[in-house]
Amino acid sequence: MSEDHHKMERENDDGGGRTKGGIRTMPFIFANEITEKLAVVGFGANMISYLTQQLHLPLTKAANTLTNFSGTASLTPLIGAFLADSFTGRFWTITVASIIYQIGMVCLTLSAVLPHLRPPPCTGDQVCQEAKESQLGILYISLLLTALGSGGIRPCVIAFGADQFDANDPKQKTKTWNFFNWYYFSMGVSILVAVTVIVYIQDNIGWGWGFGVPAIAMFISIVSFIFGYPLYRHLDPSGSPFTRLVQVMVAAFRKRKLPVVADPKLLYENDEIDASISETGKLLHSNQLTFLDKAAIMTEEDEPMNSKTPNLWRLSTVHRVEELKSIIRMGPIWASGILLITAYAQQGTFSLQQARTMNRHITHSFQIPPGSMSVFTILSMLTTVTLYDRVLIRVARRFTGLDRGITFLQRMGIGFAISVLATFIAGFVEVKRKHVALTHGLADKPHAVIPISVAWLVPQYALHGIAEAFMSIGHLEFFYDQAPESMRSTATALFWTSISVGNYVSTLLVTLIHKFSAGPGGSNWLPDNLNKGRLEYFYWLITVLQLVNLVYYLWCAKFYTMKPIEIRRKSEDSQEKSGIELATPV
């Protein structure tokens, strides 16, 4: 074991002989993630209502504003992950980002409370006044601050929570996979509260309280998270992962004319300089992307001044070359998750608008707010996660012998297939909704309530929740497991980046369809009056795109190879043992 590893173990002892981390840290870590989701979902689930009813934006502009914000909030994790992995560490990145998020929430609350920061309410049959540029500017600044805050919270909370379990200990490694399930479960509970309690407050009490309650909850979580500082395992940042990736590419390019070596044992290795980025194990040579192996070929020009400090812009170790290979191999699987998010994004835009036109009464005096329809997504997701963790894994273990039941690639594939079914059904439900509107002479009345139960939308919402329980958690497991250990925040950020691109693709699709489906009299597939549109065509277009994506994913998964790593395992007497996990096709 390296001296750096001994140092890290000493630093992660609480002074009383007990190792830091473990299950006792979860309440503090989950509190931060739960309140972040309470805030972002609390206004995100119903934001389309705020933009159209309070700021009086057209439907397509409001939908694109919402998906652009979601896309940006899911892109900023790359920045937060880079800072955490390179300089600040995960704890301080989460803390500072949470404070920035808090400021954004306060600004958003003020914009909803102060009358001059939003347009006057509509009265009678007059044309509603759309929000001024200055009023929209306050909104955008608030959303930008929350997006920047999310960028530091989202990639780091997941990795920081998983860091609390020692990957060298087989007993704790099993808990890591349970952590992902229960992380998503706790996040789902938070979202459930957001789409019920918070949305109800927004619709029935006021948007000031609707934004203010999550802001107060966020403040409490920051205090709670900082309070748990003495209990956490803290893994020091190991320098910029992007610099190491670029160094490998530069070294390989410089030696592009050299032949690939036949024996991988001839490639350069240096355990000492790799010690800080291989605490849990050293990556071994793989036979893919052999061009990059040239970066680890030592020539006479590469002879270091001493055995410890080679010029890393000319000579890389096998471990560093394999870091780059791991990231490249993950790329196609990452890309496959984009269209699922594009399909999922419609629940907060057009599906919500469908719900607004339907009979939402549960009792004579109570009706479901449109923004609360996603409660069916969350309930189905929570139910699926619980059954998966308590039933499916145990049954699958008997057939597969895997601790997690099925591989994360298989789990993702199931999620993709269910998502295809969800959008396919959504198209037929829209056909039914419009038929009822036409039958009752309500097609020309976009604000009239159509005599059809909102329960018709439940299947598509529920199926999206089941798909998320399989695909999204599998995606997270995939990124954390297959990423080099020094890049786990960065790799987790790739999960949020796929969400970002998925939302941007949704914006692009809506914009293109709005433009190219335009007909005489301003008609198109996605008008403000959905009764006159062709929303079902939009759903079926997404279904076809997802079918193509499913075939692409199955092809990528078939040829994907797990990273090969020589790992250190702890025996019962806590002495370290070595073992090798070979690269095996999935």
UniProtKB/TrEMBL annotation:
Q: Where are the transmembrane segments?
A: 91-117, 137-161, 182-201, 207-232, 366-388, 408-429, 494-517, 537-560
Q: Where in the cell is it found?
A: Membrane
Instruction: Identify the stretch(es) annotated as Disordered.
Output: 1-20
Q: Which domain of life is it from?
A: Eukaryota
Q: What is this protein called?
A: Uncharacterized protein
Q: Which UniProt keywords apply?
A: Membrane, Transmembrane, Transmembrane helix
> What GO MF terms are annotated?
transmembrane transporter activity
Q: Which organism is it from?
A: Stephania cephalantha
Gene3D superfamilies for this protein: MFS general substrate transporter like domains (1.20.1250.20)
Main location per the UniProt record = membrane
Q: Which InterPro entries match?
A: MFS_trans_sf, POT_fam
Membrane-topology annotation of the record: Multi-pass membrane protein
